[in-house]
């Protein structure tokens, strides 16, 4: 008997420990974990460097209020801004909080320049920005919003790839366009580089803000620190979460100086967001990801993974429809429902997770090696051959 609310359809398995790319179940089996808490454990399980960092901080101070200066957070913000488009950072605890804070920052900016009527956010229909009451209405998904009305106003939608409707949907009231640089839950759909560049131009022309949700695709997952770097564009606001904490809950919103000017004292806050314990882990994650050559290695290993998967697609053209994604954010799209395939992979000790459009998501840690990828390929091939 479980006393947990049944808002998850949980697989009947639990784990007693993890190490790197592997998880060990309570019934003594070893699994190759290509879920990694849904792109959260960017450096794998029980990373020794992260263990050292958190243990060091645990003995000093865990939590102080944001009404005091938190040096560990100052340091993490400085490093994030040094490496990106951003001038300022606001820390949160999760992805949904980060996307909500991004929406708040966009609205507040227009309010602060005397244009409070510019407050609507334009999003892709059936995107994913989290599960809070505003974020589900931002997603425009019927399934996610069912039973949670009244509708939270202030969001407009266009269909993925429908540029005409996108342009038509921008009105005098639009404050920002918010999209995932790579749609994760939606089926690992990469927004093409030229599209991102056109979107940037469009936002400049209409004098609206570009919010790129990098909660899932950011922090090295795509092979670059942020996925938008592939297209060489600069967004105005970027919510992040998942990978930045390496398993510790951290969210954040990165923004330009212009946008940040609206966020004056009292406009937003978070009791837990940016506490010293979280910030030390975040800094440790960056120590590793910012190390010279780390992202190059992610690019090389992911290139290998994509090419091996492509070979499987050619070998099984009636099962695998398409290999999607960028870096180590990978989707294997099947022709039919993927539920049973995922179960069979799990029977053979490979953990994966679903996404929309019959997609199986493969999210190895950024530290994954060739041997582990070869094992995954072998298992996927076996299930294809069944
Ligand atoms: C996971 C995710 C979120 C929500 O993050 P939570 O930490 O679950 O609130 C938001 N946006 C994107 C793109 C995500 O993948």
Give a verbal description of the structure.
The chain has 386 residues and is of the alpha/beta class. It folds into two domains: 15-47 and 295-385, Aspartate Aminotransferase, domain 1; 50-289, Aspartate Aminotransferase, domain 2 (3-Layer(aba) Sandwich). Helices cover 37% and strands 19% of the residues. The chain is built from 13 helices and 17 strands. It has helices spanning 36-39, 48-58, 71-82, 95-112, 133-139, 142-145, 163-169, 193-206, 257-260, 276-289, 294-315, 339-347, 370-385; strands at residues 15-19, 22-25, 30-33, 88-92, 120-124, 155-158, 174-180, 182-183, 189-190, 209-213, 237-240, 251-255, 320-326, 329-334, 350-351, 353-355, 359-362. The strands form five sheets. A four-stranded mixed sheet has the order 1-2-3-15. Helix 2 packs antiparallel against helix 10 and helix 3 runs parallel beside helix 10 (276-289). The longest helix is centred in the last third of the chain and has 22 residues, at 294-315. The radius of gyration is 21 Å and the shape is globular. The model has no long low-confidence stretch (mean pLDDT 98). Bound molecules: pyridoxal-5'-phosphate. Residues 94-96, 99, 128-130, 180, 184, 213, 215-216, 241-242 line the site of pyridoxal-5'-phosphate.
């Amino acid at each position: 008997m479980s006393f947990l609310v049944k808002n998850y359809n949980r697989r009947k398995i639990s784990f007693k420990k993890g190490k790197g790319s592997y998880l060990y179940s309570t019934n003594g089996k070893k699994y190759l974990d290509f879920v990694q808490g849904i792109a959260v454990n960017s450096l794998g399980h029980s990373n020794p460097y992260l263990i050292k960092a958190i243990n060091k901080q645990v003995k000093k101070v865990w939590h102080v209020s944001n009404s005091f200066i938190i040096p560990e957070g100052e340091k993490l913000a400085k490093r994030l801004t040094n490496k990106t488009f951003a001038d300022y950072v606001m820390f949160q605890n999760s992805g949904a909080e980060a996307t909500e804070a991004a929406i708040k920052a966009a609205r507040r900016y227009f309010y602060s320049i005397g244009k409070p009527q510019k407050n609507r956010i334009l999003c892709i229909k059936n995107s994913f920005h989290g599960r809070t009451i505003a974020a589900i209405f931002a997603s425009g998904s019927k399934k996610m919003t069912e039973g949670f009305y009244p509708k939270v106003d202030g969001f407009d939608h266009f269909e993925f790839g429908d540029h005409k409707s996108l342009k038509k949907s921008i009105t005098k009231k639009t404050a920002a366009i918010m999209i995932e640089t790579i749609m994760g839950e939606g089926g690992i759909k990469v927004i093409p580089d030229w599209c991102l560049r056109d979107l940037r131009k469009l936002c400049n022309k209409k004098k609206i803000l570009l919010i790129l949700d990098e909660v899932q695709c950011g922090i090295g997952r795509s092979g670059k620190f942020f996925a938008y770097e592939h297209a060489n564009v600069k967004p105005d606001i970027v919510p992040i979460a998942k990978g930045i904490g390496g398993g510790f809950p951290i969210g954040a919103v990165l923004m330009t100086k212009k946008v940040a000017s609206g966020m004056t004292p009292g406009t937003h806050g978070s009791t837990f967001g940016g506490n010293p314990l979280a910030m030390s882990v975040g800094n440790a994650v960056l120590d590793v990801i910012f190390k010279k050559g780390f992202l190059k290695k992610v690019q090389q290993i992911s290139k290998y993974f994509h090419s091996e998967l492509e070979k499987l697609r050619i070998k099984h053209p009636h099962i695998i429809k398409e290999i999607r994604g960028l870096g180590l954010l990978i989707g294997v799209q099947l022709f039919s429902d993927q539920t049973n395939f995922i179960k069979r992979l799990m029977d053979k000790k490979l953990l994966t997770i679903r996404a929309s459009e019959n997609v199986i998501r493969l999210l190895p840690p950024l530290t994954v090696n060739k041997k582990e990828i070869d094992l995954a390929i072998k298992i996927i091939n076996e299930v294809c051959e069944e």
